[in-house]
Amino acid sequence: MNAPGGGMEIRVDRASTEPIYRQVAAAIRADAGAGRLPGGTKLPSTRELSRSLGVHRNTVVEAYHLLEREGVVRSGVGAGTFVVAPPGAEERDATGRGAPFAWGRLMRPAGQGEADPSRLLRPRAGEVPADPIQLTGAIADRRHFPLDDFATALREVMAEADTGLLDYSPPEGDRALRAWIVEWLGACGVAGLSESRVFIVSGSQQGLDLLARLFLVPGDAVVVEAPTYHGACAVLQHAGARMLTVPMEPEGLSLSALAARLRDATPKFLYTMPGFQNPTGISLPAERRELLLRLARRERLAIVEDHFDSELYYEGTRPRPLLADDTDGQVIHLGTFSKMLFPGLRLGWLIVPRELVEPVRQLRWAADLASATLTQRAMERFCRAGYLERHLRRIRRVNARRLEAMLQALAAHFPDEARWTRPTGGLTLWVELPETIDTQELFHEAAARGVLFSPGAAFYPDGGGRHGMRLSFNRESEARIARGIVRLGELIGARLRARRTSGRRRTEAVPLL
Amino acid sequence: MNAPGGGMEIRVDRASTEPIYRQVAAAIRADAGAGRLPGGTKLPSTRELSRSLGVHRNTVVEAYHLLEREGVVRSGVGAGTFVVAPPGAEERDATGRGAPFAWGRLMRPAGQGEADPSRLLRPRAGEVPADPIQLTGAIADRRHFPLDDFATALREVMAEADTGLLDYSPPEGDRALRAWIVEWLGACGVAGLSESRVFIVSGSQQGLDLLARLFLVPGDAVVVEAPTYHGACAVLQHAGARMLTVPMEPEGLSLSALAARLRDATPKFLYTMPGFQNPTGISLPAERRELLLRLARRERLAIVEDHFDSELYYEGTRPRPLLADDTDGQVIHLGTFSKMLFPGLRLGWLIVPRELVEPVRQLRWAADLASATLTQRAMERFCRAGYLERHLRRIRRVNARRLEAMLQALAAHFPDEARWTRPTGGLTLWVELPETIDTQELFHEAAARGVLFSPGAAFYPDGGGRHGMRLSFNRESEARIARGIVRLGELIGARLRARRTSGRRRTEAVPLL
Q: For every residue of B129-170, which 3-state class applies, written as one string?
């Protein structure tokens, strides 16, 4: 019996023990495999084919479903069923058995590839010599981890032999640690915060992920700073967000650009880092902070504030969180122990308005139930014992000296045309180089010379940043920082000279951001 | 100047310092607030309104965007802009300032409310007397946690003073623990597993969540068992999955029902618990296990196997994972330390085909970067030291006695019409009661009498289960288990007698599942 459709020839053997739907599927599979049904061919409708074969329509439906699971055909609602071009080398036998299972066809179409800006930060295999100078990564220097103090805290909570330590925590987190965070934020200016609004999360990364899942459907707009934290872009892009950027300026995010964005779009929220922004290290001055809050109130803009490194201030006092002056309840606050203390414990916090507490609780439970109880309890003990304060006092001194060493080395060894931020805290600063320098190229050259930095493109979700670089000043000794900057300065200088001798005129000084 | 549209009256004052878009927004806001523009009213198009007001079209666009952020109007692509009915008591002043920020409007529309089956498992506040008998929760008895052994493991890894303990783990997890899992699964029959396919996750819950995010777009079908683990339903429903169920039978999931499902649909995967299923405690016998794998191969069905409690076997040997006989690479495997050991550490594993390793790595990094390093290292030490095996030997003996106590009590105290499963391992069993008994009602009655169990409806994503109940036999002593069953038997008996005296005839024995 022959069916319509270019090249299709289906014979049904009613005497066979092979079910008819499998015979139909086998015939189509064979035709597709042999190229008689090229990729993109539209198959006849199930009604059409069942009529021409004289079989029940469900039999054809079943055959098409099997072929779809096999990845031989693909169907779209209302669009029909189409042959998928067979992958190059892959051979299928008539039953499909033994062929490699086609997982790719099961993956959701969007949100995969583009969502890995961190690939730009990875050197190629074998590229880096031993013991490179690490001016990359917004992470703490593990050599300063207060391991002994933490061991003490851990020993103490274990000694209490409370088996609850190893049992489930509630999704919102351990009560004692949440209470400590409320007190801590109280000291940062956040008055009257209710413990019920505080969630312990497995790092602020998870906090942002929960928010993305709470708010975003594909196509929703979110405003981010440019440059911004590449891990935030990964989360938001996985959720299908349309990323609207507002440029960072030497005084913090551009409010006029933000206002303009709000004229064109209805973003679900602004993701901002008002204190020691990653990657620039810039903090919003008090006036601009006030203006941002005023703009947000006037324009009814939700703010997600990531206060990830606000304790790492080296002059004056810590940056005041936006949450502290959130009169209308439109600020969500993220914090973490990862930057001021141990990233490997995966503990941070998320503070949401009352209205969102129950939805976030449900989302968190579905995502991974809760954070580990033991680490929450040990952290609470560590903080209560005063070990955190002691550690911060020490690390602020160390980091301040390293920042100073980097700024001095930059002034001495980077070309006149370069510009950089001068943070008063945090972990990183940002350099803008003349536009003849591509920092992605420079990255590989420097990696091969034993210096790692973070090329700028990783921090721009919409392109850009090719002439920028993020430098971390907190992972290496002052001497090694200086050595790294000298080496980078040499590489940059050589590139600039090469351009000049190739006939171009002297490069202009670049604007900072 | 007046604009078209029922009840709209907009006056623009060009002399005012208030920007025109804000004047337009204020007028519409006032009209909506006063009921002159009722909820559902379609606003004029921006072109129309800008023309009639004699202002630039962008001004109207801006006004509409502001109103949308305020929650006053809502727009759909291509559909126009509509007034939102104002919430009951909420009063807005002309600037919107001071009004509570409307977070609800920012939440993604779907996937919230229905995704919390666990609400069915929660007693009402104040309902439960002190020290209730816990026949609820598929969780271990924390009184048997090997706290001392774990303290030893923890002390040992801390004593090595490796600061890496508190630094980031790679997204795929600590290498030593992954190697241990490969060996462990080797002992379970999984030969030749490559370490590169193993991810450490924060509990198998997170593993399933990552898979849901990797595969599912809203509307995608997934096959689950009925009854099934309610936490899996929560994850899948949050991802917008269409849940197709196949009934559990006394010998495991119904293969004929599964085959029928595959005739009607193209599910992304089957989520199955082949060993000591939650909630029924049923394990797939070897023949049916083989048939399931054969069906999956023939029908090209992806399987997600949750092997959460396979070490808790009390007769014979552990159930063999489907992964062990996965010739065509179509099984994804989830495992966890939460059931055999400590749930509060949040450690489990996810084993994916090679093709999915990189996408899962990216997703995991975006979700929360990695699991905690310290707990991974301590767990590896604990397992290598033989503490896990020792703990399992002890807990298997304890649980076996408790299971036996529960089965005896059920036989003695539950009505003749009831039926229940007889697991040979795991943590829970399943009871079917006569259909005159609603276990959700019984749940609250029993809670008030100091006995907690899990009512059946929580385990059926598509309705059903009203006459079923899950009983946990692993959290209480044998004496208290017996006491709990006696009390439940009394409550059930009383309900049955009340039905009979109210004129109905004797209830028939119910079929098990």
A: CCCCEECCCCCCCHHHCCHHHHHHHHHHHHHCCCHHHHCCCC
